[in-house]
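Colleagues,

For the teaching module next term, I've prepared a clean inverse folding example: a structure given as tokens, and then the sequence designed for it. I'd like students to try predicting residues themselves before seeing the answer, so please don't circulate the second half yet.
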């Protein structure tokens, strides 16, 4: 008899919520928000970032393996169709005194080609460094199942070595198996089950200073991260909640019907992120595909340029 995984997930998800969140916290804290299927408590994230003892990460590095150029009207509802926006296909690296964690894995050229109708910029030398950083990483966090995030692992010729240190949620694992995002990233259950797959409620402290939390909306398996560096600086990595910070700040949806997002959940995330942007001056919000942020944060030394290998 097959176990009904969905039912288990639903129950474990609900259990996680009921155990970890006192009902009164909604009223008690302005930083707590529960609307439309998105919930995150900043104070809880801060506490959990110290749940795992050890040195906090020293810095966050970033690289991009490709660009996708889309009409601004597709990225942000209401924007001009004549204006173009560049979406960077990034990979982030958390550098600790004794190791590193990668956030997602980029993608190879063949997978990149499945995204655009025309040939778009690809940075092979950056992807070569991603491959080396994947080898070197202690852990690789898969934020969601999409090919621009998972392709670097799934298509790796070193899959067998990488698989045991790929961490993801059960939701992501099932989507990788049952709903491959692109033809190039089809993968068997047997291979996915070699990942380090975790069922959890809302939050998962994964390393000193790093907490993953569930943020379904962009996809049903999407996760965000809270990151605290040794120098005290804090980050919320909003992953693909918005493709651009403009989505978040203006609270404007993407206009890409093929992505099938839950707009109610995304709107709740945008409101939560805006509350943080406006009230928490120590926190920087990261956005995976925002190319302007990518350039700006490298220039300002908020993010390190390129991965250490
Ligand atoms: Zn993405």
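(Answer key — instructors only)
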């Amino acid at each position: 008899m097959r176990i009904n995984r969905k039912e288990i997930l639903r129950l474990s998800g609900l259990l996680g919520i009921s155990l970890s969140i006192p009902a009164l916290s909604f009223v008690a804290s302005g930083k707590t928000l529960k609307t439309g299927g998105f919930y995150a408590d900043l104070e809880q994230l801060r506490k959990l970032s110290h749940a795992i003892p050890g040195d906090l990460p020293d810095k966050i590095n970033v690289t991009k393996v490709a660009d996708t150029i889309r009409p601004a009207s597709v990225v942000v509802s209401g924007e001009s169709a004549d204006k173009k926006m560049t979406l960077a296909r990034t990979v982030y690296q958390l550098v600790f005194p004794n190791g590193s964690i990668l956030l997602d894995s980029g993608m190879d050229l063949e997978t990149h080609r499945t995204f655009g109708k025309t040939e778009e910029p690809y940075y092979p030398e950056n992807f070569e460094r991603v491959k080396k950083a994947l080898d070197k990483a202690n852990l690789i966090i898969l934020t969601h199942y999409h090919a621009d995030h998972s392709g670097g692992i799934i298509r790796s010729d070193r899959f067998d070595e990488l698989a045991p240190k790929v961490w993801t949620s059960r939701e992501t694992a099932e989507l990788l198996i049952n709903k491959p995002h692109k033809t190039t990233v089809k993968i068997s259950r047997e291979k996915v089950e070699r990942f380090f797959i975790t069922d959890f409620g809302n939050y998962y402290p994964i390393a000193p200073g790093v907490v993953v939390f569930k943020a379904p909306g962009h996809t049903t398996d999407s996760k965000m991260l809270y990151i605290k560096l040794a120098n005290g600086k804090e980050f919320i990595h909003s992953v693909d909640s918005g493709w651009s910070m403009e989505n978040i700040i203006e609270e404007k949806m993407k206009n890409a019907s093929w992505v099938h997002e839950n707009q109610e959940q995304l709107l709740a995330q945008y409101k939560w992120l805006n509350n943080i942007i406006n009230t928490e001056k120590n926190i920087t919000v990261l956005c995976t595909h925002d190319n302007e942020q990518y350039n700006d944060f490298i220039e300002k030394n908020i993010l390190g340029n390129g991965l250490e290998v």
